[in-house]
Design the sequence.
């Protein structure tokens, strides 16, 4: 379900072809997020020509990045445990303010990548 080709397509689309402008703006405005998703999806053309698969990959990527959903996942996984903080204190990264900034940053990047890789793998596997 998850292949090296898929991981390379993700890395190229999400990092190699990511401009500074898109990186800075994609969670603030829809147009940069849309540009990013269209560019992000291009490497997946080497893996599938299925319009449905490409639409799911682009659409889900747009939603995850535009609203920075990884921070909600980070917060939700910590929420039920003792010592958790309310959302208003965690909204920047999903982690408590006392979490070192470098650590919270890397953890939210990892969560974001897992979300993308899983949804891409499911789309490629089930939609072709």
Sequence:
């Amino acid at each position: 379900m998850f292949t090296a080709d898929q991981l390379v397509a993700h890395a190229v689309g999400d990092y190699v072809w990511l401009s500074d402008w898109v990186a800075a703006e994609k969670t603030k405005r829809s147009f940069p997020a849309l540009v990013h998703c269209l560019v992000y999806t291009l490497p997946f053309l080497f893996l599938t020509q299925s319009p449905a698969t490409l639409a799911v990959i682009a659409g889900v990527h747009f939603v995850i990045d535009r609203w920075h959903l990884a921070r909600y996942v980070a917060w939700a996984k910590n929420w039920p445990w003792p010592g958790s903080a309310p959302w208003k204190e965690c909204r920047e990264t999903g982690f408590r303010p006392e979490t070192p900034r470098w650590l919270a940053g890397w953890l939210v990047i990892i969560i974001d990548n897992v979300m993308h890789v899983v949804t891409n793998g499911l789309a490629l596997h089930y939609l072709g």
The two ends are 11 Å apart (CA to CA). The mean pLDDT is 96. The CA atoms of residues 4 and 10 lie 10 Å apart. The helical segments are 4-16, 20-25, 30-41, 51-66, 70-78, 87-90, 101-127.
